[in-house]
Automatic annotation (TrEMBL):
The keyword Transmembrane applies. InterPro entries: ABC-4_Integral_Memb_Prot (IPR052536). Keywords: Membrane, Transmembrane, Transmembrane helix. This is ABC transporter permease. The lineage of its organism: Bacteria, Bacillati, Bacillota, Bacilli, Lactobacillales.
Protein backbone atom coordinates (compact mmCIF):
# COMPACT_ATOMS: atom_id res chain seq x y z
CA UNK A 1 0.00 0.00 0.00
CA UNK A 2 1.08 3.55 -0.72
CA UNK A 3 2.25 5.47 2.31
CA UNK A 4 0.31 8.61 1.43
CA UNK A 5 0.84 11.90 3.20
CA UNK A 6 -2.01 13.84 1.58
CA UNK A 7 -4.86 13.23 -0.87
CA UNK A 8 -6.92 15.82 -2.72
CA UNK A 9 -9.21 15.94 -5.76
CA UNK A 10 -10.44 18.77 -8.00
CA UNK A 11 -13.34 18.87 -10.45
CA UNK A 12 -12.41 19.68 -14.02
CA UNK A 13 -13.98 19.95 -17.47
CA UNK A 14 -12.21 19.81 -20.79
CA UNK A 15 -13.48 21.49 -23.94
CA UNK A 16 -11.15 21.32 -26.88
CA UNK A 17 -7.60 22.01 -25.73
CA UNK A 18 -8.67 23.92 -22.64
CA UNK A 19 -9.11 22.40 -19.17
CA UNK A 20 -11.32 24.33 -16.74
CA UNK A 21 -11.19 24.20 -12.94
CA UNK A 22 -13.54 25.50 -10.29
CA UNK A 23 -12.13 28.50 -8.44
CA UNK A 24 -14.02 27.84 -5.18
CA UNK A 25 -12.44 24.39 -4.82
CA UNK A 26 -8.96 25.87 -4.71
CA UNK A 27 -10.11 28.38 -2.10
CA UNK A 28 -11.31 25.49 0.08
CA UNK A 29 -8.43 23.14 -0.77
CA UNK A 30 -5.40 25.22 -1.87
CA UNK A 31 -3.24 23.62 -4.52
CA UNK A 32 0.27 22.90 -3.22
CA UNK A 33 3.51 22.80 -5.13
CA UNK A 34 7.15 22.90 -4.14
CA UNK A 35 8.87 26.25 -4.50
CA UNK A 36 12.39 26.95 -5.76
CA UNK A 37 14.04 26.51 -2.35
CA UNK A 38 11.95 23.58 -1.23
CA UNK A 39 14.32 21.25 0.60
CA UNK A 40 16.58 21.46 3.63
CA UNK A 41 19.10 18.84 4.74
CA UNK A 42 20.72 17.82 7.98
CA UNK A 43 24.47 17.28 8.47
CA UNK A 44 24.19 13.75 7.04
CA UNK A 45 22.64 14.95 3.78
CA UNK A 46 19.18 13.62 4.64
CA UNK A 47 16.16 15.68 3.60
CA UNK A 48 14.51 16.85 6.81
CA UNK A 49 12.10 19.51 5.60
CA UNK A 50 10.19 19.99 2.35
CA UNK A 51 8.24 23.22 2.00
CA UNK A 52 5.25 23.73 -0.28
CA UNK A 53 3.72 26.88 -1.69
CA UNK A 54 -0.07 27.28 -1.50
CA UNK A 55 -2.08 28.47 -4.49
CA UNK A 56 -5.68 29.50 -3.80
CA UNK A 57 -8.37 30.14 -6.39
CA UNK A 58 -7.64 33.85 -6.75
CA UNK A 59 -3.95 33.26 -7.38
CA UNK A 60 -4.55 30.45 -9.87
CA UNK A 61 -7.19 32.45 -11.71
CA UNK A 62 -4.60 35.15 -12.40
CA UNK A 63 -1.78 32.71 -13.16
CA UNK A 64 -2.71 29.01 -13.64
CA UNK A 65 0.83 28.02 -14.73
CA UNK A 66 1.31 25.95 -11.56
CA UNK A 67 -1.30 23.50 -12.90
CA UNK A 68 0.31 22.95 -16.31
CA UNK A 69 2.71 20.25 -15.18
CA UNK A 70 -0.21 18.16 -13.90
CA UNK A 71 -2.05 17.97 -17.22
CA UNK A 72 -2.25 14.79 -19.24
CA UNK A 73 -1.40 16.75 -22.37
CA UNK A 74 1.18 19.48 -21.81
CA UNK A 75 -0.20 21.43 -24.77
CA UNK A 76 -3.54 21.96 -23.04
CA UNK A 77 -4.43 25.42 -21.82
CA UNK A 78 -5.66 25.79 -18.22
CA UNK A 79 -8.26 28.20 -16.88
CA UNK A 80 -9.67 28.65 -13.38
CA UNK A 81 -13.22 30.01 -13.48
CA UNK A 82 -16.08 30.87 -11.14
CA UNK A 83 -18.94 28.51 -10.34
CA UNK A 84 -21.36 30.16 -12.78
CA UNK A 85 -18.87 30.00 -15.65
CA UNK A 86 -18.05 26.40 -14.81
CA UNK A 87 -21.73 25.38 -15.04
CA UNK A 88 -22.07 26.92 -18.50
CA UNK A 89 -19.26 24.81 -19.94
CA UNK A 90 -20.79 21.98 -21.98
CA UNK A 91 -18.44 19.13 -21.16
CA UNK A 92 -18.48 16.07 -18.88
CA UNK A 93 -17.25 16.52 -15.32
CA UNK A 94 -13.97 14.81 -14.51
CA UNK A 95 -11.85 14.48 -11.38
CA UNK A 96 -8.19 15.31 -10.99
CA UNK A 97 -6.83 13.15 -8.15
CA UNK A 98 -3.56 14.18 -6.54
CA UNK A 99 -1.78 12.35 -3.78
CA UNK A 100 1.52 12.90 -2.05
CA UNK A 101 3.53 9.99 -0.71
CA UNK A 102 6.22 10.17 1.95
CA UNK A 103 8.87 8.19 0.08
CA UNK A 104 8.82 7.76 -3.72
CA UNK A 105 11.79 5.41 -3.66
CA UNK A 106 10.15 3.11 -1.11
CA UNK A 107 6.86 3.05 -3.06
CA UNK A 108 8.37 2.88 -6.54
CA UNK A 109 7.13 -0.66 -7.25
CA UNK A 110 3.56 0.26 -6.21
CA UNK A 111 3.63 3.38 -8.38
CA UNK A 112 4.92 1.33 -11.31
CA UNK A 113 2.02 -1.07 -10.86
CA UNK A 114 -0.50 1.80 -10.85
CA UNK A 115 0.89 3.14 -14.13
CA UNK A 116 0.98 -0.35 -15.62
CA UNK A 117 -2.69 -0.87 -14.70
CA UNK A 118 -3.75 2.52 -16.11
CA UNK A 119 -1.68 2.23 -19.30
CA UNK A 120 -1.11 -1.48 -20.03
CA UNK A 121 -0.13 -0.87 -23.67
CA UNK A 122 2.03 2.24 -23.25
CA UNK A 123 3.51 1.53 -19.83
CA UNK A 124 7.17 2.22 -20.64
CA UNK A 125 6.33 5.49 -22.39
CA UNK A 126 3.73 6.78 -19.93
CA UNK A 127 5.73 6.10 -16.78
CA UNK A 128 8.01 9.01 -17.72
CA UNK A 129 5.28 11.21 -19.22
CA UNK A 130 2.46 11.10 -16.68
CA UNK A 131 1.94 14.37 -14.78
CA UNK A 132 3.43 14.79 -11.34
CA UNK A 133 6.61 14.26 -9.37
CA UNK A 134 6.86 10.52 -10.10
CA UNK A 135 7.77 11.04 -13.76
CA UNK A 136 10.23 13.76 -12.69
CA UNK A 137 11.78 11.29 -10.25
CA UNK A 138 12.23 8.68 -13.00
CA UNK A 139 13.71 11.28 -15.36
CA UNK A 140 16.14 12.37 -12.65
CA UNK A 141 17.16 8.73 -12.11
CA UNK A 142 18.05 8.40 -15.78
CA UNK A 143 19.96 11.67 -15.91
CA UNK A 144 21.87 11.33 -12.66
CA UNK A 145 22.37 7.60 -13.22
CA UNK A 146 24.42 8.60 -16.26
CA UNK A 147 26.33 11.14 -14.18
CA UNK A 148 26.99 8.47 -11.58
CA UNK A 149 28.32 6.00 -14.15
CA UNK A 150 30.48 8.67 -15.80
CA UNK A 151 31.81 9.83 -12.44
CA UNK A 152 32.60 6.28 -11.35
CA UNK A 153 34.33 5.46 -14.65
CA UNK A 154 36.40 8.65 -14.65
CA UNK A 155 37.22 8.22 -10.97
CA UNK A 156 38.60 4.72 -11.54
CA UNK A 157 40.53 5.93 -14.60
CA UNK A 158 42.15 8.85 -12.74
CA UNK A 159 42.86 6.65 -9.73
CA UNK A 160 44.63 4.09 -11.92
CA UNK A 161 46.58 6.86 -13.65
CA UNK A 162 47.64 8.49 -10.37
CA UNK A 163 48.62 5.25 -8.65
CA UNK A 164 50.41 3.90 -11.74
CA UNK A 165 52.44 7.11 -12.13
CA UNK A 166 53.43 6.94 -8.46
CA UNK A 167 54.33 3.28 -8.75
CA UNK A 168 56.54 3.70 -11.84
CA UNK A 169 58.15 6.84 -10.42
CA UNK A 170 59.08 5.03 -7.21
CA UNK A 171 60.26 1.86 -8.96
CA UNK A 172 62.33 3.84 -11.48
CA UNK A 173 64.53 5.06 -8.62
CA UNK A 174 64.95 1.61 -7.09
CA UNK A 175 68.32 0.92 -8.74
CA UNK A 176 69.86 4.11 -7.39
CA UNK A 177 68.45 3.38 -3.91
CA UNK A 178 69.94 -0.10 -3.95
CA UNK A 179 73.39 1.25 -3.01
CA UNK A 180 71.89 3.01 -0.01
CA UNK A 181 70.42 -0.23 1.31
CA UNK A 182 73.69 -2.07 0.71
CA UNK A 183 75.41 0.54 2.86
CA UNK A 184 72.79 0.08 5.59
CA UNK A 185 73.38 -3.68 5.39
CA UNK A 186 77.09 -3.19 5.98
CA UNK A 187 76.23 -1.09 9.02
CA UNK A 188 74.30 -4.06 10.43
CA UNK A 189 70.72 -2.88 9.95
CA UNK A 190 68.33 -5.83 10.09
CA UNK A 191 66.13 -6.85 7.15
CA UNK A 192 62.96 -6.28 9.18
CA UNK A 193 64.01 -2.68 9.87
CA UNK A 194 64.81 -2.08 6.21
CA UNK A 195 61.40 -3.39 5.14
CA UNK A 196 59.71 -1.17 7.70
CA UNK A 197 61.69 1.82 6.42
CA UNK A 198 60.66 1.07 2.82
CA UNK A 199 56.99 0.79 3.83
CA UNK A 200 57.08 4.14 5.63
CA UNK A 201 58.87 5.99 2.84
CA UNK A 202 56.47 4.74 0.18
CA UNK A 203 53.50 5.38 2.47
CA UNK A 204 54.42 9.07 2.67
CA UNK A 205 54.71 9.28 -1.12
CA UNK A 206 51.26 7.70 -1.52
CA UNK A 207 49.53 9.46 1.38
CA UNK A 208 50.19 13.07 0.33
CA UNK A 209 48.52 12.96 -3.14
CA UNK A 210 45.77 10.71 -1.74
CA UNK A 211 44.85 13.19 1.01
CA UNK A 212 45.08 16.09 -1.44
CA UNK A 213 42.72 14.27 -3.82
CA UNK A 214 40.14 13.63 -1.06
CA UNK A 215 40.21 17.28 0.02
CA UNK A 216 39.86 18.36 -3.60
CA UNK A 217 36.75 16.16 -4.03
CA UNK A 218 35.16 17.45 -0.82
CA UNK A 219 35.50 21.05 -1.96
CA UNK A 220 34.74 20.27 -5.61
CA UNK A 221 31.35 18.76 -4.78
CA UNK A 222 30.20 22.23 -3.75
CA UNK A 223 29.92 23.00 -7.48
CA UNK A 224 27.30 20.26 -7.90
CA UNK A 225 24.86 21.62 -5.31
CA UNK A 226 22.83 23.21 -8.09
CA UNK A 227 22.41 19.80 -9.77
CA UNK A 228 22.21 17.42 -6.80
CA UNK A 229 20.07 17.79 -3.70
CA UNK A 230 22.59 16.01 -1.48
CA UNK A 231 26.00 15.72 -3.21
CA UNK A 232 27.64 14.38 -0.02
CA UNK A 233 25.07 11.66 0.62
CA UNK A 234 26.69 8.21 0.63
CA UNK A 235 30.11 9.71 -0.06
CA UNK A 236 31.71 7.16 2.29
CA UNK A 237 31.23 4.41 -0.34
CA UNK A 238 33.34 5.93 -3.16
CA UNK A 239 35.92 6.98 -0.58
CA UNK A 240 36.02 3.41 0.74
CA UNK A 241 36.50 2.03 -2.79
CA UNK A 242 39.22 4.63 -3.43
CA UNK A 243 41.09 3.78 -0.22
CA UNK A 244 40.91 0.01 -0.84
CA UNK A 245 42.19 0.29 -4.44
CA UNK A 246 44.80 2.84 -3.43
CA UNK A 247 45.98 0.52 -0.64
CA UNK A 248 46.30 -2.36 -3.11
CA UNK A 249 48.52 -0.22 -5.36
CA UNK A 250 50.57 0.77 -2.32
CA UNK A 251 51.13 -2.84 -1.22
CA UNK A 252 52.08 -3.92 -4.75
CA UNK A 253 54.58 -1.05 -4.98
CA UNK A 254 56.15 -1.98 -1.63
CA UNK A 255 56.58 -5.62 -2.63
CA UNK A 256 58.06 -4.78 -6.03
CA UNK A 257 60.38 -2.19 -4.51
CA UNK A 258 61.63 -4.71 -1.96
CA UNK A 259 62.36 -7.20 -4.74
CA UNK A 260 64.46 -4.63 -6.59
CA UNK A 261 66.30 -3.37 -3.52
CA UNK A 262 66.63 -6.19 -1.00
CA UNK A 263 67.56 -9.41 -2.87
CA UNK A 264 71.30 -8.78 -2.60
CA UNK A 265 71.09 -7.46 0.94
CA UNK A 266 72.24 -10.09 3.41
CA UNK A 267 72.09 -9.20 7.03
CA UNK A 268 73.36 -11.26 9.91
CA UNK A 269 70.50 -11.41 12.40
Amino acid sequence: DLNTEKKVSYVQKQRGNTVYYLKDEFNKKPFQKTDNKWVKEDSKGKNVNISYKNYDGNKLQKDPSALYSYQQDFENDVKVVSGDEFKKIQAPRQELYLFRIKDIKHNKSDLDQIVKTAYPKNYQKMRTEIPGEYSSYLAALEIFGGFEFMGFFLGIAFLAMLASCLMFKILSGANSDKHRYEMLNKLGVRSKVLRRSISREIMVLYALPGILGIVHVLFGLQLFKTLLLAPYRGIWLPFLIFIVLYLIYYLITVKLYERFVLPDVKIDN
